[in-house]
Amino acid sequence: MSTPLPARPPAAVADYPPQASFPDEDRDAVARHLSRARALAATDLWSEFRWRCLVSPLDRQQVTGVQHDGLVPPTRLFDALYSIGQNAVSAYALDTADGIIVIDALNGPEEARDILVPNMERLELDPRRIRYVIVTHGHGDHYGGAKYLQDRYGARVVAAEADWALMNGPQPGPFAALAPPRRDIVAKDGDGVTLGGTTVRLHVTPGHTPGTLSLIFPVTDKGKRHWAGLMGGSGGGRDSASIRRQIASLERWEKLTAAAGVDVLLTNHPAHNDATEKQVLLRYAMPGDANPFVIGADRYRRFTRMLGECSRVQLARMGEGEE
Ligand SMILES: [Zn+2]
């Protein structure tokens, strides 16, 4: 969701939108956590830091401009992992010998029918082979098409208990009329979804929503094994209580991903990690070019800690310290 944008160019300076301001901010705490986040990001996570700590909280106009609904070519990311979403929100297909696991389902049945499924077909993935749809969290832009995939292909839908409740409650604005999937598989922390010998490990990481699921699963890049980490709510919390839960979840996520050896950064909005742009590089890759989604374990860890510092910046901007 976004606030309506002014006409471009605005008629007068008086109509220019101001940058967001935070009258109650604890300036010293903002400075401290921003500095830590920036140091963690160094130069190789500048883009992710810029988005999460600076652009997203301060500049709605830029967020809406970058994270607009738009078609992008579906792209093979790893040997059996495909990007099948659109510019504003991600969806993935993980192919196995026994069927396909879809991760997130875009904004609604129309996008599932007219974007997600055609993207799969362009990649020669048969949508009738979808066995599971994992919903990373219960916001309409992620579960929107889940009921369509459930009804049409008999896919089993997986979400955490708290977000089944969220999906079945009233939805804001553009999602008010959206039908949720029928309640199906309830994921508990640490559960796995296994298909064709591949297990996607699910961790309940509350913060962005009460039942956000974060995923760890193996991928291969031209046969070489890597571990993908997809934090299901990297956009953060909305009030101080949920931001505090998010900080705790990120501390746990750092340990879980380090233990698993996660070295691949996936997100559920392309803008969070420049995924749309990285996909261009992949589609035009020369033999031997590095896969831009493989960032290495150290950099993944700094990414997670950076998200935690940006959440602390968010709290400090509300005038609330976490310590
Ligand atoms: Zn969300």
From TrEMBL:
Gene3D superfamilies according to UniProt: Ribonuclease Z/Hydroxyacylglutathione hydrolase-like
Metallo-beta-lactamase domain span: 88-269
One Pfam family this sequence matches: Lactamase_B
Cofactors demanded by this protein: Zn(2+)
GO biological process annotation, one example: antibiotic catabolic process
Family matches, as InterPro entries: Beta-lactamase_class-B_CS, MBL_Glyoxalase_II, Metallo-B-lactamas, RibonucZ/Hydroxyglut_hydro
Superkingdom field: Bacteria
GO molecular function: beta-lactamase activity; zinc ion binding
SMART domains, per database record: Lactamase_B
Disordered: annotated segments: 1-22
Enzyme nomenclature, EC number: 3.5.2.6
Keywords: Hydrolase, Metal-binding, Zinc
Protein's UniProt name: Metallo-beta-lactamase class B
Species name: Sphingobium jiangsuense
